[in-house]
Amino acid sequence: VHLPEINVVDFFRSGYLPEAMVNFLAFLGWSSGDDREIMTLEELIDCFDLLRLTRANSLFDRDKLIAFNTEHIRRVGKEKLLGHFKDYLKAVESPVVRADDELLGRIIKACEGARTLADIERKCRFLFLANEQIEYDEKAVKKVLLKNDGLVMLQIIRGKIAAMEQITVENVENMLRGLAEEKQVGLGKVAQPLRVAICGTTVSMPIFDSVEMLGKENTLTRIDITLKKFGTKTKTESG
User: Fold this and answer.
1) Measured between alpha carbons, how far is 174 from 112 in angstroms, rounded to an integer?
2) CB crowding 82-119: b at 16 or more within 10 Å, else e
3) What residues does CATH 1.10.1160.10 cover in the chain?
4) SS (H, E, C) 168-221
5) What is the pLDDT, as a whole number, of residue 17?
6) Fewest CB atoms within 10 A around its CB: which of 27, 114, 161, 170?
7) According to CATH, where is 1.10.10.350 located in the chain?
């Protein structure tokens, strides 16, 4: 059972930045006196005045906390965000902790707009699992792979990736967009089967970055595992 966060450690393990927590808590029972809400610790100290304490009861609004955290992730700066992310990975004992700073930086950049550090970790975790460790989301499999010729599209994608000499974000994007145009379908009809095959779910970093970071060999292996596992299931159900 997932319980709500109680202490500061819980909130950090849920992916909230210290800067966001301090900023959010400061506004419980206090007002800045202007329209500002997203503020650094230094700005809060400079602005704080006991005369602006509010009489109304405070409301711990988690949606607002998420909004504060999203904005602080965007503003905090690359080096500080990287440091927070590394501390978070250690705290939750994530396999992502094995990544070097360069790769973590690329991951953070690819996850632009993340609401919490946990969001970033969830979207990139697949990169650090063995190919056989990928767990497939049942709803994603049914919706993406077992309907609308998802496995057929995945087989076509496999052939195109196998033929690629170099796996780059640009090359993968051109291939997937070209295939979508050729088949006269939306990009999602092409990208999602590939995403489920390599990640096990429909949620990840941008698919172009995901394939580049995973690499050609691992991508092909995961596609093969997916085709074998669910291709057999499709034949069984239809037969």
Assistant:
1) 21
2) bebbbebbeebebbbbebeeeebbbbbebbeebebbbb
3) 8-128
4) CHHHHHHHHHHHHHHHCCCHHHHHHHHHHHHHCCCCCCCHHHHHHHHCHHHHHH
5) 97
6) 170
7) 131-238
Residue 159 burial (CB count, 10 A): 9
Torsion of CA 131, 133, 136, 137, to 10 degrees: -130
Q: Counting beta carbons within 10 angstroms of the beta carbon of residue 205, is it exposed (0 to 12), middle (13 to 18) or buried (19 or more)?
A: buried
Fold of the 8-128 domain: Glutamyl-tRNA Synthetase; domain 2 (1.10.1160)
Average confidence (pLDDT) over 183-187: 97
Which tokens sit at 163?
């033929």
CA gap 216, 163 in Å, rounded:
10
Interval 19-71: pLDDT, tens: 999 999 999 989 887 888 999 999 999 988 888 888 888 888 999 999 999 99
**Which one, of 192, 86, 179, 206, lies nearest residue 146 by Cα?**
192
Residue 120 Cα distances to 46, 48, 105, angstroms: 32, 33, 11
- List phi, psi (to 5°) of 181: -65, -40
Closest CA to 197 of 169, 219, 171, 167: 219
